[in-house]
Amino acid sequence: MKRHSTSRSFASDNNAGVHPAVMAAIANANEGHVIAYGDDYYTERAVKLFRQQLGKDAHVFFVFGGTGANVLGLKAGTASHNAIICAHTAHINVDECGAPEKFTGCKLLPIVSANGKITVEEIKPLLHDVGFEHHVQPRVISVSQATEMGTVYQPAELRTLAKFAHDRDMLLHVDGARIANAAAYLKCKLKAITKDAGVDILSFGGAKNGMMYGEAVVFFDESLAKDFKYTRKQGTHLPSKMRFISAQFAALLANELWRRNAEHANHMAQLLAGELAKISRIRITQPVESNGVFAIVPAKCIPLLQQKYFFYVWNEETSEARFMTSFDTTPEDISNFIAHVRKVVG
Q: Which residues pair with 215 in a beta bridge?
């Protein structure tokens, strides 16, 4: 069995390895004994760095993975008779095996979106039955930043969604699996698209931006965070050796490593999109605003391309493929891939 590939694929930023600085941080944390379950120096430092980025009132909890971060964060802000509004492409709707509905008890109300983003005008029709006891009651608007289509919400768009939600006693949740890529694209601080934009609950991603594993659930309202330590434990996401997640986040947040990794991945996506756009039989379908490139590729060519470079087909009916770049993607990777595409597609 082939243990690993020397060539980098364009399937997912989850396929990338671990940034050397993060790997070094894990090794450095592997010294001696410290108190388990987060009562340690590494976790204290990581939380302090998060608060420097997101504001002193950010309440930060580390978990193992992105699905857990989304599910538990949403559970903290909902009751089982509530509903969660999201784009139909949202990770919580498509790629979490029904976990949000199973563990929160809430119904997801997906909105069909061409670009992964949702608007207030699209949400309004879902609120007609607020107060009617026979129907679920919308409680959370959940958006992905960057979206599953690689697009990015502007700060003003998030503020509009947050105000709309808060005026109706609702919450705004952000699935920030790729929030670093969004901030890098916008050239803004993380606080500008979280706390300052009115976000209530944030899933902050690390694994797609150079970490081995680990995500954070961040609350900007103390009342939501009050009982979360119990929710996290009951939800099986309390790491006993939390220092190894905390040390990774500390490395990522220190000296803007998170931004440099994201900027590089975004730049590689722009480079890839530019080269693909030169091939007449390929059509880019979405604005390239983060580290994802979506393109229509001749269907008969896809299996031939995948023999050498793995990637996912996003839409079988339209022959739309998704290509993801990572912090470790190189111009040479793209050049070699494009040469293969030209040979296969023509």
A: 63, 205
